[in-house]
Amino acid sequence: MKFELRSNLLRACFYQPATRMMALQMRTGGWRFYDNISDAIVRELVCHPTPGSFYNLVLRVGLGAPLPPLSLKARLFYHRLRKMK
């Protein structure tokens, strides 16, 4: 699922419920990949009036570091995202 975000920091949120993987596309062009994300967290991010602030204050602190972009899980998820587009 793809969610467009209105934020100065985040461009879009991609989420796959079957694998519980989430990818955040940053406005600068970078990607952040997270594993084992619950539906509730994604829903809160998408529905929040300022998703960038929610990311900085909740996700970065609560979830810790994202997956390394060259890890196998992140690369496979990114490959699936490119097929969706």
Question: Could you explain how this protein is built, in words?
Answer:
The protein is an alpha+beta fold. Strands 1-2-3-4 form a 4-stranded antiparallel beta sheet, with helices on one face. It is globular. It starts with a strand and ends with a helix.
Based on the model shown, name its key terms.
single chain, 4 strands, 85 residues, 40% helix, alpha+beta
- What structural category arises from helix and sheet content? alpha+beta
* Rg (CA only): 12 Å
Uncertain runs: none
Q: Per the principal axes of the C-alpha atoms, what is the gross shape?
A: globular
Q: How many extended strands?
A: 4
Query: Major β-sheet, in short?
Result: 4 strands, antiparallel
The average pLDDT value, as a whole number, equals 92
Please state how the strands of the largest beta sheet are arranged side by side.
Answer: 1-2-3-4
- One letter per element, helices H and strands E, the order comes to EEEEHHH
Give the CA-CA distance, first to last residue: 11 Å
How many H/I helices? 3
Percent in strands: 15-25%
Helix content: 40-55%
Structure summarized in a few sentences:
With 85 residues, this protein is α+β, with helices and mostly antiparallel strands. The protein contains 3 helices and 4 strands, in the order ββββααα.
Please outline the helices and strands.
Layout: E1 2-4, E2 10-16, E3 21-26, E4 31-34, H1 39-47, H2 51-62, H3 72-84
